[in-house]
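Before surveying the methods themselves, let us examine one representative protein, written as a sequence plus integers encoding its fold.
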Amino acid sequence: MADNALGRFLRARREASTPPPSTQRRRTPGLRRGELADRAGISVEYLTRLERGTDRSPSGQVLASLADALGLTADERVHLYRLIKAGSTCSPPLPPPLRPTVRAVLDALEPAAACVFNPSGDVLACTETFRTISGLGDEPNLIRFAFSPEAKACYPDWDAIADARAAALRAAADLGDHAAAALAFELSITAGAAFTDRYDAAATLPPTTGIERWGAHVLVFETLHLPGEGEHRIMVLLSQH
């Protein structure tokens, strides 16, 4: 995004927005920067950096606030999200590789369903049983799948699982995980209130143990944090008979 497409889009939408009633003559169309900044709950200085392209990595929360303040349509919100993805000035850091011992643990857990995932819900490795019963298919992210059209058919207790997945994403985003914040903004567009109502209301950490139903399978799960970089977790699911 060498030509600052994000800043150009934000400025164009700001100038196309209806300003508040005023008796004073306005030199520029639409909203002033200060007016938009007030609506979005950000500083004028930060909005200026976004429009000028000196900051091209706003958080998902800032993007959502700007989208609301500008009254963006669903298509415009998707476009804004794509601008952020396309405009990253540098490649995100590569996730730390899984240690051979972690992969050996997964191999030893077969035929149980188990996976290793990161804070934003990306499945980094899994057992064949997990791949078979999870329903994920080509979707590599547990949280995105939970808010996909296929999820309700896969999860008989979808409401409880959706609550837990949204809480997990909120916890990761609140701790500064950029991938989690970006996924939250994406889901606010693609899943709408089904996601945002849960995400905004999340006030507790997601459970690390419990029971979930995946299709015909009733599964007891345990989630363990792995030491090392990346804050990886391993989740093991055992069939309850």
In short: Residues 158-174 form the longest helix (17 residues).
